[in-house]
Specification:
Elements: E1 40-41, H1 53-67, H2 79-93, E2 102-105, H3 107-119, E3 125-130, H4 136-142, E4 146-151, H5 160-170, E5 174-178, H6 190-201, E6 208-212, E7 236-241, E8 254-258, H7 260-269, H8 277-287, H9 290-293, H10 297-313, E9 317-318, E10 325-329, H11 334-343, E11 346-347, E12 356-360, H12 364-381
Parallel strand pairs: 1-11, 3-4, 3-5, 5-6, 6-7
Antiparallel strand pairs: 2-8, 7-8, 9-10, 10-12
Length: 382
């Protein structure tokens, strides 16, 4: 018996390079912000406040009831949850939606992946405008969709003429617009979104336009939601999440509102029973307490504005923010600043354009710790 020495040994000694990985994935790394155990965690835009005890009790009761039926598959259409989400959007933004106009999945990440699975793919293009959410190109990569980025202006707003030119040149099948934008916090006026919709409507094959409002509940008073545009545009989708304002990042519930036909397209590509019975129970129980869960939003908005004012007062550039974070800079060596904060027990995010850092808005004590640490790091540089 002879041994084939050209093959790697079987079992746990196999390296990634020994496997038939897709060529476009070689050298890639899994997405994720640093998960470090430090006193002040301000790097992933979570709501810093835990779920209220009375809401926890109702969620636990709903999960217990769902657990009695876990021998059965969950409701794969989850129309009850979709009706609850539609009712919430009616209250929050005045949007009149039927359950058939709402979709949900394992976080807004999976919702976006469904969009790219349905409307992207080989020979198709997804377009966005940088800087923006760093997962967008990964959705495109994972669905074999060509990824193209235009640019944002120096103040991180979207130049309409530039957007029109990019759409005409690249003829995308999907346009992704984050509003408020991550990592900048910039909200898009409805007129800008409508201009993009008009531009894609002029293409030989219309594109789907997704406005990602993951931070929509934090927008400043008077800043409208793109939901108001849905009745006039069947190729528009507006995505939201329960991870941020609802303090439910651990529940992994994202959702989208669009025309029924667009939602039907997502139903084609979703995996069977993709939303577990437990997840549905948690989301529905939480939505019954939406007023309680969102009661911290005004406080976080005010603290965001205070943080922006303090940073500007101390000589930093800060992007206007309608989210629960602030992008600030600029630094010749932003990593050194990030590291200096980390050494003082404060973790923020090294993301966005070169020279900028992003801080999530935390509790009063957490933001005081951030200000103290940044002042110390800044003092060391001088």
């Amino acid at each position: 018996m002879t041994t084939d020495t050209t093959r790697p040994p079987a079992g746990g000694s196999t390296a990634l390079g020994d496997l038939p990985l897709r060529e476009d994935l070689r050298g890639e790394h899994p997405y994720g912000a640093p998960q470090l155990h430090v006193p002040v965690v301000l790097n992933v835009n979570e709501n810093p406040y835990p779920v209220a005890p009375e809401v926890v009790a109702d969620i636990a009761d709903a999960v217990a009831r769902a657990a009695s039926g876990l021998n059965r598959y969950p409701d794969r259409e989850f129309l009850d949850l979709r009706a609850d989400l539609a009712a919430f959007l009616r209250t929050e933004s005045g949007a009149e939606l039927t359950p058939e106009q709402v979709w949900a999945a394992n976080g807004s990440n999976e919702v976006m992946l469904h969009v790219l699975q349905a409307f992207g793919g080989p020979g198709r293009t997804a377009l966005s405008f940088a800087p923006t959410y760093s997962m967008y190109p990964e959705y495109a990569r994972d669905t074999l969709t060509r990824w193209v980025t235009g640019r944002r202006a120096d103040d991180f707003t979207l130049d309409v003429e530039h957007a029109r030119a990019q759409i005409a040149e690249h003829r995308p099948s999907v346009v992704l617009l984050a509003s408020p934008n991550n990592p900048t916090g910039t909200a898009l006026p409805p007129a800008t979104v409508e201009a993009v919709l008009d531009a894609v409507d002029a293409l030989p094959q219309r594109a789907v336009v997704v406005v990602d409002e993951a931070y929509g509940e934090f927008r400043r008073t008077g800043v409208p939601s793109a939901l108001e545009l849905l009745p006039r545009h069947g190729n528009l989708a507006v995505s939201r999440t329960m991870s941020k304002a609802f303090s439910l990042a651990g529940a992994r519930v994202g959702y989208l509102a669009a025309a029924p036909a667009l939602v039907d397209a997502l139903r084609i590509v979703r995996l069977p029973y993709h939303l577990s019975a437990v997840t549905q129970a948690v989301a529905r129980a939480a939505l019954k307490h939406s007023a309680t869960l969102l009661s911290t939003v005004d406080e976080l908005r005010a603290r965001r504005d205070e943080t922006v004012q303090w940073l500007r007062g101390n000589g930093y550039r800060v992007a206007d923010s309608d989210a629960n974070f602030a992008l600030f800079g600029t630094f010749a060596d932003r990593h050194a600043v990030w590291q200096g904060l980390l050494e003082r027990g404060v973790l923020i995010r090294e993301t966005g354009p070169d020279g900028w850092l992003r801080v999530s808005i935390g509790t009063e004590d957490e933001m005081a710790a951030f200000r103290k640490a940044l002042t110390e790091v800044d003092g060391e540089k001088k």
